Amino acid sequence: MSRPAASLRRWERGIGLKAYGLLVYFFLYFPLLIVLVFSFSPTKTIVGISGFTLKWYLELFKDQNLLTAFFHTLIIGVGAVGIAIVLGLAGAFFVSRVSFPGKSVFRTLVLLPYILPGILMGISLLVVIKALNIPLSPFTVLLGHVSFTVPVVMFQIMSRIARMGPNYQTAAMDLGANPVQTFWYVTLPMIRTALIGAALLAFTVSFDEIVISYFLTGTWMTLPVFIYGMMRYGLSPKVYAISTIILFLSLALIMLMSRYTGRSAEVYRVRRPRE
Amino acid sequence: MFSPAGGLRPRESFRSERGMMSDENAIELRGVRKAWGDVVAVQAFDVGIRKGEFFSLLGPSGCGKTTTLRMIAGLEEPTEGQILLEGRDVSRVPPYRRNVHTVFQDYALFPHMSVRKNIWFPLKMSGVSLADARQRIDRVLRLVNMEGLERRLPQQLSGGQRQRIALARSLVDEPAALLLDEPLGALDFKLRGAMQKVLKDIQRNVGITFIYVTHDQTEALTMSDRIAVMKSGRVHQVGTPDEIYNRPATAFVASFIGEMNFLHGRTLGAEAGMPQAEVGGQRLRAARSTVTGTPGAGDDVLVCIRTERVQVNSYRATEHEMAGTVRRIVYRGTDYELTCDLEGQEVRAVVSAVDWDPALKVGVSARLGFNGADITFFPREEEKEVVQYATDAV
Amino acid sequence: MGERYSPPRSLLRGIPITIWMLCLVAVPLGYTFLISFFQVEGMQIAAKLTLKNYGLFFTDPMYSRILLKSMLLALAIASLSILAGYPLAYMLSFRVRRGKQALFMLSIIPLWVSYLVRIIAWRTILGNKGVINSALTALGFIKEPLEFLLYNRFAVAVTLTYICIPFVFIPVYTALEKIPRNIMEAASDLGAGELRTLLNVVLPLSLPGLITGFIFAFIIALGDYIIPQQLGGTQGIMFGNLIWSQFGFAFNWPFGAALSFILLAISVTILGLTSRFGSTEGGFLNE
Predict the structure, then answer these.
(1) Exposed / middle / buried, residue A124 (Cβ in 10 Å: 0-12, 13-18, 19+)
(2) Closest chain A CA to residue B170
(3) Between chains, do B77 and C5 touch, taking CB under 8 Å as contact?
(4) Residues of B with CB below 8 A from A171's CB?
């Protein structure tokens, strides 16, 4: 085959893949676009977007129940993340640095609430809660959220510890720092970014969580539970408005998160002493 | 030794008040043993390390030298035995309450702290005042020749520089001893040589006890006052470089340091107090023998002689002379390494270029000369401990 | 050999996480397993052990049929997700030079958009008065709205695939990025064309990531019940709905627990496959 033709084919094939990629991106973003558009449209049907209105957004802010639900979601998020930080930090160092039998089983068990379908965790927790005669309340919802925020934080921190390099904690202890001092002056500053990123990630997951929350709440609603209710019992275009707001909130959270996680944000990379 | 000014966590004062026999010793290990279940990392042994001594732990990987060091540092707890620091039993004391510091192989400089902050760290932990600390940091920076670089971050330093900062950090609060775990392992050859001198100078200047772990026998020989040679958890010998080199206690030590020939021989009775063995038809006398009991006739022994002590076609007269066939000649610049076949056994000789006989070629017969003063006998069972690398092992 | 102090002391550090794990994972899952052997009497759950629940599942064909249907559907969804996600990851990894980070974010963002929002979006698109139908009607292609778009397996499949694509993308992309570029050069140096390099080099090397992504998608699809409930109608009912209804109207918690446990067993087994054949990195919990 002559040279120009071969390279042309290569370029064409490149185009083919890129076109396919574009199609996938379109597929991924089209629904989000729809939601956005509908949140500003006065009618429920498309075709001939008959105007632009902020009506639905205004109705949102007048909906007390919705605002309350939003507030609830924030509380649960902050609470679940707070607990997750404490447990996840301790757990991360424990699993990373101490050897004990059955470690891989332990790791899997900890990870389970995050990767299993929500319905399994929701039911399991519900069943135990009922058996202990605990009434469903914000507390039970919090419990449910803590079940998956802890693995998120713990595994993110573990990933950071693994990449941290030499055992700085040991060096600190050797130089005279007791465990508390070591944690405060050495460990914490070094995992700070990973911790923040993990907290943001866990918050995002908690913010959106519906299945477990639904099982474990009585009448105390979080935002997803509220929206779920709207979906089942009557779809007002308000839903599009709140969806759009959540869309941009999530976007903001991810942007924030990308500052703290990932290799690009890594300030404390130490090159191996081998020069 | 300093005492913390208003210290938050006063460390044990290690001025030894009691006039024990261990008064001279900075560190003493008594019956120290470390095992994890069935696996014995360090077999029970005793050793006393004197103040101001440069003491090395030498041996191949996995011999237990690093484990021993960690036990002294407090990073591992001995299964049995005691560790005494300036007369005080610190076996169960955590590392942050022991007055020894470790220089790790990867330095472990805190990446989020500047050089100055790194060095300040131990002082901060023991509550030294800022003014005091500043003085000491400056002093130690001068000591390691790193003034002016205080604001740098560890990532901005070269390997050798990090090495020195790690050293400075461990020295700044004048610990009782400094533990170094193969600190030069990450450096290239030339830099390593230079750093060896630097370390030795600092140790002599400051007068601090160094405990130095290495697998490099040259390093140990050139820098140490005394060396403990270890293999597979067992301390084979503790002695000065001269003792280790010229009077090795076991075949392993003989093989690990320097180049040694190990020939198979059979004992014959002693003559004039010197044991004898028959090798390849010849009767050889030895100045030293570690074989216990009365060697009867016909026991197997290892007959050992250093490669540089084997004379080849030399004008110097030697006690014993045997004929061997040259198998391989390697020219090494300053000397030649000759491998000969001697009645089915391999003998290596190192001949300096000055004494080299140009007539020596592969296949010719060579006149090998030994002196009884250079020969040692070891029990034949120790052969399996010998560390040599045959080409087929590669 | 890791760093350790005397074992008893360092094990203390693990107490909080162990308590958490026991309370929120081991005990609930264990108790669910226990309950699956109880039975319902009247409106109470009686602690009398019985194998009735599992028996019911295995004897009544309806339940196992739904499980099978769900698994097949989940398989299809996972496959579709791979079909969409793998080329996307490949394109991003090998074809894009600048703006990789930005495009990566672009591929990830849908993952962080609310799950419910995405469902609402698809309901809007597929409905009788939805985007597709309205557009086609307005353009004159059809007179009557297409019924088959919503409230059936098709809708469930489309929506779940939509959810799963990012979960496939991440591990596959991570795996592709790990392939040393000089291997590709070596391959073409030895005479392999684009396609052959793909089949013989890239695909095998990225297989662990692919398997991980596939399994994640499968588990997500299998265990979902909201999407079938909202978009599946009667035809699209899946195993998750079955479980859910036991805790709702049917009020047969022991049976629901048994069904849950079956789902658990399947999920755990398949996840076990991930650790054997898949990659442990590229999970979305790593960076």
Answers:
(1) buried
(2) A175
(3) yes
(4) 102, 104, 108, 110
**pLDDT tens, position by position, B32-49:** 999 988 889 999 999 999
Question: Does the structural domain C65-277 have CATH classification 1.10.3720.10?
Answer: yes
For chain B, the residue count is: 394
Confidence band, pLDDT 50/70/90 cuts, at residue A45 = low
Taking 3-state DSSP, the helix, strand and coil percentages for chain B, each rounded to the nearest 5, stand at: 30, 35, 35
Which of the residues B34, B61, B71, B76 would you substitute to probe the C interface, choosing the one with the greatest number of C C-beta atoms within 10 Å? Answer: B76
The answer to whether domain A55-265 has CATH 1.10.3720.10 is yes
- Which ranges of chain B have pLDDT less than 50? 1-22, 390-394
- Residue C254: pLDDT band with limits 50, 70, 90: confident
Mean pLDDT, residues A161-173 taken together: 85
Q: Distances in Å between the alpha carbon of B335 and those of B118, B338, C66?
A: 47, 10, 84
Going along chain B from its start, the domains and CATH numbers come out as: 21-246 (3.40.50.300), 251-393 (2.40.50.140)
Give start and end residues of each alpha helix (H) in chain C.
7-11, 15-21, 27-35, 52-59, 61-90, 100-112, 115-126, 131-138, 153-178, 181-189, 194-197, 203-223, 226-231, 239-246, 253-277
Predicted ipTM of the assembly: 0.85
Q: Does A14 touch chain C if contact means CB atoms closer than 8 Å? A: yes
* Residue A222 DSSP SS3: coil
> How much is the mean pLDDT over chain C?
83
Residue A47, pLDDT above cutoff 60:
no
Q: What is the pTM of this model?
A: 0.76
Domain ranges of chain A: 1-53, 55-265
What are the residue boundaries of the structural domains of chain C, listed by start? 65-277
- DSSP conformational letter for B370: E
